[in-house]
Amino acid sequence: SLSGCPRATFAGKKGKLSGDEILNTKFKTSDVLENDEEIKQLNKEISELNESNSEMEAAMVKLQSQISSMEKNLKNIEEENKIIEEQNEALFLELSGLSQALIQSLANIRLPHMEPISEQNFDAYVNTLTDMYTNQECYQNPENKDLLESIKQAVKGIQV
């Protein structure tokens, strides 16, 4: 009815159009059909948008789950790294103590062509000792045998 139509009541109040004129100009059958097609099209678009939104929400939930999983993995890795760092620090302190004990034990023993052991030449000294014990056949003369035996005696008391 015209009494329920906002356009009809607005135009009727102003006195510009009568009820018949409003019907003739505003509400033709073709307009209703066009509006019905537009409504169907809009409903179709709304359905497509709802479906798209549902897909997006599902993808978002999946991404949030993956992010949570990655954050948990990262936290675990950080904890493992912290434990490894603590172990490395403990091993470094132990190595430092062993290095000092070795330097003190071998302070009076001179290797051929080397200065007495110190912190500055420690690595070279250890490399030379390693080479001596790896290639003992090169050190078979009595002087070198005595040197190897004195080294063994010097490091005998070091606890590893």
UniProtKB/TrEMBL annotation:
- Gene3D superfamilies reported in the protein's UniProt record: 1.10.287.1490
**ATP-binding keyword on record:** no
GO MF terms, alphabetically ordered? DNA-binding transcription factor activity, RNA polymerase II-specific; RNA polymerase II cis-regulatory region sequence-specific DNA binding
Localization, UniProt? Nucleus
Per its UniProt entry, which superkingdom is the organism in? Eukaryota
Coiled-coil region list? 32-94
Per the record, GO CC terms?
A: nucleus
Q: Which keywords describe this protein according to UniProt?
A: Coiled coil, Nucleus
- Please give the name of this protein: Myelin transcription factor 1
